[in-house]
Amino acid sequence: MESLQSGCRWRTQSLGMALLNMVVVLLLVSPGRTEGRREKKKPDCIEYQAISCRAHSASLTDFGAVGDGTTSNTAAFQAAINHLSQFADHGGAQLFVPPGQWLTGSFNLTSHFTLFLHRDAVILASQEESEWPLIDPLPSYGRGRDAAGGRYASLIFGTNLTDVIITGDNGTLDGQGAVWWDKFHNGQLNYTRPYLIEIMYSDMVQISHLTLINSPSWNVHPVYSSNVIVQGITILAPVHSPNTDGINPDSCTNTRIEDCYIVSGDDCVAVKSGWDEYGIAFGMPTKQLIIRRLTCISPTSAVIALGSEMSGGIEDVRAEDIVAIDSESGVRIKTAIGRGGYVKDIYVRGMTMKTMKWVFWMTGNYGSHPDNNYDPNAIPIVENINYRDMVAENVTMAARLEGIPGDAFKGICISNVTIGLTEKPKKLQWNCTDVEGITSGVVPKPCNLLPDQGTDEPVTCDFPEEELPIEDLELQTCFYRKGHW
Ligand SMILES: *[C@@H]1O[C@H](CO)[C@@H](O)[C@H](O)[C@H]1NC(C)=O
Ligand SMILES: *[C@@H]1O[C@H](CO)[C@@H](O)[C@H](O)[C@H]1NC(C)=O
Ligand SMILES: *[C@@H]1O[C@H](CO)[C@@H](O)[C@H](O)[C@H]1NC(C)=O
Ligand SMILES: *[C@@H]1O[C@H](CO)[C@@H](O)[C@H](O)[C@H]1NC(C)=O
Ligand SMILES: *[C@@H]1O[C@H](CO)[C@@H](O)[C@H](O)[C@H]1NC(C)=O
Ligand SMILES: *[C@@H]1O[C@H](CO)[C@@H](O)[C@H](O)[C@H]1NC(C)=O
Ligand SMILES: *[C@@H]1O[C@H](CO)[C@@H](O)[C@H](O)[C@H]1NC(C)=O
């Protein structure tokens, strides 16, 4: 008889069988028999949460892939995905990556598609440059970050897609980045290094439950996209590896980043929207962004950076429940004359920090231009920046806040923040220039440009109450079932 099935679980008997069994149990008075009624997990079935489930499935091994860590599987990945793309309009498809070490160069995703990594699957990034096609620079950047001109496509790349999922039960992407870091340090890069995951011009994107290690450069880069969920990602890179940013939402609308653990050589999360005259011309902001339950270790950079590329604007960012350990700064704003754009309506609450160089850092003097053609009259606007409910310990300096002369950063609010200092703190704890705002219940005592509002009417800085649309996006329980892997 067919077993009763719900998702991956199946009961060993139907309801009718259960009743019959009860009679048998009563007759035989055998307590051991009742165990048969417990739900069991089918051994060849995996359950996962996703924005959509798929009607069709295949395993990477169906396409001749070899998981020995040395055979290149670039062609197998691309053949599998090209084959599965035919199901886009027929319920979509999922590609299962079984246990093994799957060496590959860059490959491209398709719409209504899920890439699922088994927990013992490792996608190993090839170190052969020929395995990495060159693509154009991002239009909002005008050039590559490492070198003028083109850039290598990401390990997992997708553009102009709808409904695409990269997930697993904590399988691994290993960027094998050391060769790229050496080339970067030795000035041997003719093109910009690849990222691990880049999704461009796409809607409905999920990246979840994976471990990403040793990326050549940035780890996760959703760009010009909307309705993006990044969830349960572990990112690990040596803390001195160059530009190994964790998650960089870039000119994206409606994004939710949650339950991530990031140790990195650069910012854990960097929110961006294009670079100087290229970003201004492209004009696509990052807005409606949630970042919550993030743990970050970033000794040389920020827990969350806003900028420095922000020429398309950054607005309505809500960050909460953040833990930072041994990081240079908390939520920092980096911009420069020539960037244009804005950083506004930023809300942060609930941060616990231990061993920080600066808790707060903002600068309008970051420099770092793509070329000399930036407009010196393109002055960025920074306003309505809210930080509240934070505790930090072992801090060297509370705040370094440097606005732009004649164009102050305005509407800064900091409330209910207690900062404990290290054994050798800076004498000047708050260094403020060209900033305007207020503070309430902040220790140590803030600078005069951010006057304390006193204890009679303590201020609570804003955090919006109404939800963003991305919070309503519900995940479904999906499953992959396979006889072999
Ligand atoms: C992936 O798509 C990009 C952009 O369309 C293209 O340049 C690149 O060659 C594709 N990669 C592969 C492996 O086909
Ligand atoms: C992807 O979408 C962008 C923006 O709509 C468009 O400019 C570009 O031509 C599209 N690319 C492809 C390969 O369809
Ligand atoms: C995923 O794997 C990483 C690396 O082994 C580990 O640190 C992390 O705790 C794992 N996450 C889950 C949810 O199992
Ligand atoms: C970069 O370009 C130079 C000069 O064209 C060439 O000699 C070198 O091999 C190239 N390096 C790489 C890593 O492709
Ligand atoms: C102040 O912040 C702490 C967390 O750091 C929080 O537990 C507490 O409720 C906040 N106090 C008020 C009055 O909001
Ligand atoms: C405190 O911070 C200093 C750096 O300022 C660091 O060397 C030290 O290990 C930290 N102490 C603790 C207890 O974390
Ligand atoms: C304070 O900040 C200003 C502007 O960034 C800088 O020029 C100055 O050196 C800083 N002062 C100290 C004591 O760090």
TrEMBL record:
Gene Ontology biological process: carbohydrate metabolic process
Family: Belongs to the glycosyl hydrolase 28 family.
Organism expressing this protein natively: Trapa incisa
Residue span(s) of domain Rhamnogalacturonase A/B/Epimerase-like pectate lyase: 60-104
SUPFAM superfamilies named among the record's database cross-references: Pectin lyase-like
Protein name per Swiss-Prot or TrEMBL: Rhamnogalacturonase A/B/Epimerase-like pectate lyase domain-containing protein
Keywords noted in UniProt: Glycosidase, Hydrolase, Signal
Signal peptide annotation: 1-36
InterPro entries: GH28_Enzymes, Glyco_hydro_28, Pectin_lyas_fold, Pectin_lyase_fold/virulence, RHGA/B-epi-like_pectate_lyase
Domain of life: Eukaryota
GO molecular function annotations of the record: polygalacturonase activity
